[in-house]
Amino acid sequence: MNQGKMVVRTGNTKELINKTMKTKTKIGIADAHGIESYKNGTIKQAGLFALRARLNRQRHAVCYEATVSEKTDRCIETLIKKHDFIGALIFLKEHASNINLATGMGNVQESFNLIPNPKLDPYN
Question: Which of 6, 8, 87, 122 is the most buried (most CB within 10 A)?
Fold first, then answer.
């Protein structure tokens, strides 16, 4: 298994304007239906997330690690509480200062670029 390896989204990493801004590292699974899980941690702790993502590749599931500001974290948490999982993933993709994806599951970068899109779920 290659769950410890990462691929960094190049070309879409944002500079933090305020270098003293407090950030959080979040891990989880994202798929065709948006954010499926969103927890504190690092990709090294995401073994079960990576396994679950591998088992759900038909929905373009990926295991991610994201660096977010505290404000971004609060916004994403609010969207998730409102069951807006698609909105939460879009917000994460637009506002995270860095996103890493666990590799070893096919072309995860391509899948990440395609989601969220419920039409990609063959069981939808």
Answer: 87
This prediction has a pTM of 0.81
How far, in Å, are 9, 18, 19, 111, 119 from residue 34 at the CA level?
A: 18, 29, 29, 12, 12
Cα dihedral value 7, 10, 12, 18, nearest 10: 90
**pLDDT greater at residue 106 or residue 12:** 106
What Å distances lie between residue 100 and 52, 62, 67, CA to CA? 17, 10, 9
Residue 109 C-alpha from the chain's centroid: 11
Closest CA to 89 of 23, 38, 24, 13: 38
How buried is residue 25: exposed, middle or buried, by Cβ count under 10 Å (0-12/13-18/19+)?
middle
